[in-house]
Queue: 2 jobs
Job 1
Amino acid sequence: MNHTTPAPTAAPTDRTYLLERIGEAAVVQVYADAFRDLPLRERTLVWHLGQAAIAGRDIFYDQRYAHNLEMRDVLEAIVTHPAGVDRSTLDEIACYTKLFWINTGPYNNLTSRKFVLTCPPASFAAAAHAAERAGARFPLQAGDTLDALLARLQPMFFDLDVDPIVTSKTPRAGKDILTASANNLYVGVTTADLEGFEEQHALNSRLVKRDGELVEEVYRVGGRYSEQITAIVHHLDAAIPYATEPMAKALRALITFYRTGDEADREAYDIAWVQDKASPVDTINGFVEVYLDARSVKGAWEAVVSYVNHEKTSQIRTIAEQAQWFEDHMPWDPKYRKEGVHGVTANAIDIVAETGDSGPVTAVGINLPNSQAIRERYGSKSVSLSNVNEAYDRSTLPEFRTEFSWTLDEAERSTRWNAFASELTTNMHEVIGHGSGKVAERLNGNPQSALKEQYSAIEESRADLVALYFLPDRQLVEFGLVREDAQEEIVRTEYESYTRNALVQLRRVREGTHIEEDHMRNRQMIVHWLMAQTSAIDVRSRGGKTYYVMTDVRAFRDGVGRLLAEVQRIKGEGDYAAALALLDTYGVHFDPALRDEVVARVDHLQLPSYTGFVMPRLDTVTNASGEITDVTISYPLDLSAQMLEYSAATRHLRS
Ligand SMILES: [Zn+2]
């Protein structure tokens, strides 16, 4: 599970964070300041893990859309050979290409919806021919011409009605969630086909219907994505000598899993990974989160490479150390309380590389592994991404707060406390939110299979509610997590900003009248449930503008406690009907007129809807015998340069 709300504040600084604005997206450089102070051994380890991260990047492109890599090749061929391309066409292609890189294909990361080129197809073709004359090479198959290639891809580049949604959990009546989703996790498979079919490689395979039979194409060495996975394994292997023993054990287990693709080996890897609690460097590499799949089953490939940020770690660690206290005080039926909570490992980290499902658009907190059975037995690891939070913080515009706050007081409170409140709630969300609770025995530690496409949004709701519930608790002062004289202000700030967010986040869904993304569904649901069931929130209007105003902290918290008890019950019992009703009533649908108003307000102020991050760049210095004698870090400040470099690094792996 990951958590994706940034902590917005603005702080002046003399280095560049916000690099450019492309449509609704902001491009921001992330910095990893403490990297240069790591010992050479750890920097070398990070280097190899970073190479493994780049090696797998194309897997996620392919998983997200079957035409993605071909489309990317065409775009990159044009933008790298601009001589002779008409200026305005080139501008449009460059803009589209950047959005394509940020979103890993032509689907908006948050809305799941397709975006298209707006120049005429003939201008695009002219640009491609100009690029070809300038020496560009296009991904032509045997007997293919450039015109044939462009004709084949024209619907993908230009037609909003062809493959319109990448993940469609709420398709139009009569449509199937799998065939309505444009992703490449299934080919010709409907939900009905899956009845009675037992997947052997649920997380790491593409499911294809071939001659009426379901076939699992397993992601492993010798299977699907063999070239990329072999390259990943090569780099992980090179990393092992520089890792601590517990981390080396986890890396060896991961390599075994990449070779066999077997569920038992994936479990062994998850266990080894979660048991590596103290290593200063860590990586997530594999088929992990299930948000891309409308069924919430298939893992999307991602890689994160990070080191521990010691300065920032104390808060999240304190929450982890007190996990049993929180568990004992959960406002839900005691039968869902976990006893003997152990193994919750929490760190603040700085990321050095994020690819695939985790970059350029990144989470700010991560809690893994996702397997409920392993979490209950072996615990979990929670991280907050400190340098991503910092980059969000430094790149956010102050108008975000003032525009949607009902009073000046509210806006000022947000300026003062929002970064702190938001980081604390993110940490609680990850550690005691996702980390808490247990489910009924008969679910075999797998509530996902009962809750199906509703699972992720229910689990995100649960984690948010836990954080919101404990924020006002006096015990937080005892634990040293908040100052006694500031707690009331912090609680009010967070409740206000959580409430405002249900309005502000509508800017991200510019088409349609419903929400697909699970974190967004969860936040709409909680705020609208509180509006309907408590007196905590008022909807007000002034000067033609709508405001969501949090008016009663106590009513808010009481409501959160009641809702949390119900959401835990839904997860604990795998109550699909209740999950569907709750989310469909409060979380999925919205008023398009209200959305249009919000969009007009943010566009007027030129506020971005989401952010793509440029990663640091690592380089090695080697001696005459090829050994690494130094690993240096620098900051490209340039999305295009980094994306082109990553693409070039793996082109040879695509046969
Ligand atoms: Zn989460």
Job 2
Amino acid sequence: MKSNLLALIFFISGFLFAQQIDVVDFKRAAVSVSFQPEMKKVLGEVDYSLEILKSTDSIFLDAVSMEFSQVMLNGNLVDFRNDSKRLWIKHKFKKGKTYDLSFKYKAQPKKALYFIDWEYPEGNKQIWTQGQGKYTSNWLPSIDDMNDKIEFDLSIIFNKNYEVIANGKLIEKQISHSTMTWHYDMQKPMASYLVALVIGKYDKQIEYSERGVHLEMYYYPKDSLKFEPTYRYTKQMFDFLEGEIGVPYPWQNYKQIPVKDFLYAGMENTSATIFSDAFVVNDTAFVDKNYVNVNAHELAHQWFGDLVTETSGTHHWLQEGFATYYALLAERDVFGDNYYYWRLYEYLQELDVQDKSGGSTALLNPKSSSTTFYKKGAWVLHLLREQVGDEAFREAVKHYLNKNAFKNVQTEDFIREVEQASKQDLSKFVKLWLENKDLNYNLMLESLKQSVFIQEYLMVDCELYTSKCKEYLNSWISDEAMAKVIEQIPNQITSDNFKSPIKVRQAIATSISTIPERLKQDYESLLQDESYVTIEVALMNLWRNFPQTRNNYLNQIKGIVGFHDKNVRMLWLTLAIITENFEPENKSEYFKELIDYTSPKYSFDIRQNAFMYLKQIQACNEQCKDNLKQGTKHHNWQFSKFSKSMLEAINSN
Ligand SMILES: [Zn+2]
């Protein structure tokens, strides 16, 4: 997953339920589910095959608040107990024997499966799942402990006008009247948290990897023009990672599906990555915000996380550190070495900020922050590879994956392979980088200095070398270094500096808030840049600085929407409403549009923007407040938290 919090939950679960793993091995689940979206209900039938490892008189499945019927063992009704957390099966189970456990169930999941927009006629109706951190056992009786891997074959019955996507390969579609049954087949086992399905209105395009793996990329029918920028570099990164990792992609195909109001950036469900539709972008948005990194990250998880899975949260870096590191390698293949070192530099700055606030922890501490698991994890792999060399590193990774395929892993499993491949004793490395909580900033910075690009960036610094500063503004240095100089001495910018690439111009846009008259024309040219960040900032600053020409700016930007969250349109509407002489006849219409964006039929990032602007101009009316109240119950905790504090702020005014 790519997100900000989790880990702890895994640690606890891996611990408590460790015993059942020694008693029973659930091998395969044939699952058939249908839905009542208006009621937010799941109806299912499951058939588990299991093997008893130790004789016992009861076994359980995790199952939150479900109703069961027809619970059968080997075809006969069996004694069961449902304590609303687990389904307990009572029977004299014999060691070495295999059993068939089947049942029907009903659930109204509070989390892990989400019904989106079914109450709104104009909404983008979807059903999708999120197992990691939420537990699949909220909608499907399964095993919360990620150490029991099961082959899940899902059949889903739904309205035939929708697209239904799940783990594995679609082997059959059966139509009966208005419904269709989609049969998906997995050949290999996975942890329950990786079970996934998506239902919605989608088109798809398929590409084939070098080895012939189907790469299925889904998109909303209205987004056909965004398809290419959204999925840019997918095949290149897939082929790169397969070659770099040295182990063939382990699943039958690879699907990627954007969904509305997702909880994280993306989630690496086995062979079926779900990601936030905020990453569905056009060419202009791609410049500032794109799916490339998340795409590579979730893909890397298909090996690191899905093929080999941590035994507990102590080893969470084996998933997130690896996914972050391999995503960087894939991006290095696309964007080059400078990009790679630049991102490592940025990660280091983030780790440094955390360190200075006292937040550093050991990588093997299960309570570490995601900054530590993801960014320090990636850094440690970068440093380890430096120490042992490319060849030994790659050989070790290959052995590690092959030996532990479809099983669970601990840090020792990986380190042992690196020691064998490199013939080095890594105990000092492990102590320093995995067990010790210190950041070791200087050692990390040293490693970055092998990059001339980073050397230059560090050298070009107006705070350290004041005398040379003006020279830098007129020299050939990297865009990143130039952006730094501009941020440090914005008042020394000249017309010449505007003749720069788009990212430097963006730094100019964001660094100058008081625009000198001599730069007015140059600054106005920023409104034409192919960057929604630049346009938004430039419009705001120009509007503030030059009241006489406000109407010109508004006319120029009219019709530009911006990112998924409509950043440019929202600002434009707000300014159009409050600019006195601008289109007085249309003001009420613009206000209506801004209010409309607070409604639940829009994604929460759009709503959030609308709420903020309406609050700023003190225009959140009854309709807006109703929508805000509704937002406090949203399934995305960040948005519900935002809505609560916004509602408080508005009510206290
Ligand atoms: Zn991840």
